[in-house]
Amino acid sequence: MVLINKIISQIKNMKIVLVLIIIFLCQVNGFGEEKPKNIHGTSIILSGQIIDADNNEKLAGVRITCGNESNIIHSTLDGKFFIYIKNRSLLENTHIEFSQIGYGSKTILLNDIKSNCASLTIDLKSE
Questions:
Q1: SS3 93
Q2: Which of 10, 22, 23, 58 is the most buried (most CB within 10 A)?
Q3: Assigned domain for 38 exists
């Protein structure tokens, strides 16, 4: 019985140590993340929300294509999106297209966005 209590005590201590290790690793991982930087005005951060143009409901899963088919993201469940472009000058004349089945698509030109940190509301009309 003493042996079982000793084993249970060691398992509890190992759980505490494991939780502390996980917390530490999460903190270390956070320090290593590269935060978006505005380097000489060339980077751009776009964020915003996509809504239904008729009833202002948030649209989830909207396909967002930036430049070509290899750069695709989708809006979150609450219609939000975030795009970080490290070098704006490489993407001059690039179109960002927002599309959803059952809705018309909307395209914006990156050159038309004058700020390096812009918040957009994109409204899509149902077809």
A1: coil
A2: 58
A3: no
Give yes or no for a contact between 34 and 106, defined as CB atoms under 8 angstroms apart. no
- Which pLDDT tens digit goes with each residue over 55-103? 999 999 999 998 766 678 999 999 999 988 877 666 677 889 999 999 9
- Give the DSSP H or E segment for 121: strand 117-124
Top-ranked range on mean pLDDT: pick from 11-25, 37-51, 60-74, 98-112: 98-112
Residue 67, Cβ density class (10 Å: 0-12 exposed, 13-18 middle, ≥19 buried): middle
91: which DSSP letter? G
Same-domain pairing of 50 and 80: yes
Question: Alpha-carbon distance 22 to 26, whole Å?
Answer: 6
119 belongs to a structural domain: yes
State the residue for tokens 């396909």: 63
Q: What share of the chain is helix, strand, coil (3-state, %, to 5)?
A: 30, 35, 35
